[in-house]
Fold this protein.
Amino acid sequence: MNSIDLIALSHSFDDRNGVPALLFQQDHHALYWLGVPEDSAFRCNCYLIVDGEEGILIYPGGKTEFEFIQSSIEKVLPLTNLMGMIICQPDPDETSAIIDWLKLNPGMKIITAPRTNTKLSHYGSLDWSWHNVSEEPVFSFKSGQKLDFIPAPFLPCSETFTIFDKTSRFLFSGDLWSAIDMDWKLVVENFAAHELKLSLFHLDYFPSNLTLKGYLKQIRNLKLEAILPRHGSIIPLKNISFALEYLNRLRCGIDLIYPDLR
Ligand SMILES: [Fe+2]
């Protein structure tokens, strides 16, 4: 059970850029939003999972954010305790800081899918330990707490996956449920008003309603407590049913480009 009310947190969140925000805490397991270095309509969220003394960075991010994210993490735990970084797809905004992270902490494991792992070598190194999510779709902390990796094929890349933290029941959804929004809040309160901001991102970025429905089928039995996208605001429990329905009915990509073809 989360002791943190995400909507109340959003109301009291005055300095939204500068400090990490604790989103979930239960015993030795905690989740943080790491902040963004500057206001932007296309802001990129990085998250940190802390389990005991172990830390996992969700999305290492781009080079321009590296120093900011590094300093944000240092407010929570020593960088030497960072044991891995999860990369859900090869976009530069999600991956281009990996060499900086590995220089800082060469022991960090890269947790990603095979094609993304191959592409990462173009940043100039092959020298890392790799957790292949296609072969091992679960990550276990020393405590026994687990992360599940759920494929999200073609959303937007062939091997894209999402992350389900089984302790908090929070879903790190990558580009799914991402939004473009200048006047943003940390947490979505009014989902109807948020739909336009989602559609600015979704309509020309995802391939089709079929791919969205396929993903929804995979997560239909999960009792989600929150959805944490890579871009845009966090979707709390009270809006999750609306968020699922939004994707279920969304027509996008080739549905719109080739409306006559089925
Ligand atoms: Fe993205």
